[in-house]
Amino acid sequence: MSSYTASKSLYKSVFGAIALGLSVTSLSFNVQANGQITDQVNHLKDHLSEYSEEVSWLEEKYDGLVTRYEAKGTEAVDTQELINYWEEVNFHSAIETQYIPLYATIWQHIYGIKTGIENGDDAKKVRQHQRELTQTFWQALGAVKLAAHYQDKGVIDKIKTTDKAPTSAPEIITDIEKRLDKVVAKYAEQLTEVATTMVHDTYMERFEGIEGALIEQDASLVEALEKDFNVTLPQAIENGKSVDEVRSIVDTMKKKLDNAQSLLEKAEQNRKDVF
Predict the structure, then answer these.
(1) Which of these, 262, 256, 198, 194, lies nearest to 225 by C-alpha position?
(2) Phi–psi pair at 162, nearest 5 degrees
(3) Distance in angstroms (rounded) separating the CA atoms of residues 163 and 153
(4) Whole-model pTM?
(5) Which is more confident, 22 or 39?
(6) CA-CA distance, 229 to 97, in Å (whole number)?
(7) Which of 55, 198, 211, 231 is deepest in the core (most CB within 10 A)?
(8) Could you count the other beta carbons within 10 Å of the beta carbon of residue 191?
(9) Cα–Cα distance between 226 and 40 in angstroms, integer?
(10) What pLDDT digit, counting tens, does each position of 132-141 carry?
(11) Distances in whole angstroms, Cα of residue 265 to Cα of each of 171, 213, 223, 241
(12) Closest Cα to residue 15, out of 146, 133, 191?
């Protein structure tokens, strides 16, 4: 299977994310569960063969573990290995820093396998999660190859370990959307408290800063987003909703934020035209 071919259908969405400069901020360094991100993420092209080998290794490991479960049952499997495999490879941080939605999907399927085995689910159901995980690994490798190409061309900034705060209202909206993607990723990792804290911090540190300007454009939109930040999303996380349900809430919020961004951009342009 060609990993690059597997990613072609993701070209537009992946490039859109990359073009926005999806770098790791100080926030993501603080909440990371698997240790430091090394400088290899700033030299993706030099590590592509390594990443390809790691994806093949991961495919083999997860397939072998599920095969063992099919043959011998729950007692024959240490489900902690599922997490250890993923956290062991450098490819882990490569996809985390370049395309966070796929990173979240990987964790979602890892825990799908883990929970299925621990609950003694039908092996066919567990195997389906494993197949989807493998497919996501190859899609993620395609995304990293694409990122490596644009990094080599200088389109993507190097990963920074400090958080440069956005200055304009539209930039703040973009930053909020990136943070919400990270909320889904951390929730998929089953870091519930981290995800909840990120929602709260995003509201306090980012959204509150643009509320005044946005109220002038659409007060009802501000009210709807306030409810999403303070009630809908945190309650879904705290009540243990599925990753897909949490992702759906975030997707709905991002549509509202896109609307907010358009309103703020128009307001900014109108101010420039006046002066």
Answers:
(1) 256
(2) -120, 150
(3) 23
(4) 0.75
(5) 39
(6) 24
(7) 198
(8) 18
(9) 39
(10) 999 999 999 9
(11) 10, 11, 20, 34
(12) 146
* 138 vs 149: CA distance, rounded Å: 17
| Angle formed at CA 11 by CA 5 and CA 17, multiple of 5 degrees | 140
Which residue is associated with the tokens 């300007």?
Answer: 213
Q: What is the 3-state secondary structure (H, E, C) of 43-70?
A: CHHHHHHHHHHHHHHHHHHHHHHHHHHH
| C-alpha–C-alpha distance, residues 173 and 188, integer Å | 23
Count CB neighbours of 158 within 10 A: 11
234-263 burial code (b ≥16 CB/10 A, e <16) = bebbeeebebeebbebbeebbeebebbbeb
CA 87 to chain CA centroid, Å, is 15
- For residue 216, how many other CB atoms are within 10 A of its CB? 12
- What does the alpha-carbon distance between residue 196 and residue 183 come to, in Å, rounded to a whole number? 8
CB atoms within 10 A of CB 123: 17
The candidate with the shortest Cα–Cα distance to 259, out of 222, 205, 232, is: 222
Query: Taking a C-beta distance cutoff of 8 angstroms, is the pair 257, 229 a contact?
Result: no
Q: Are 95 and 140 in contact (CB under 8 A)?
A: yes
- Give the closest residue to 182 by CA, choosing from 51, 19, 29: 29
Q: Over the stretch 105-141, which tens digit does the pLDDT of each residue have?
A: 999 999 999 999 999 999 999 999 999 999 999 999 9
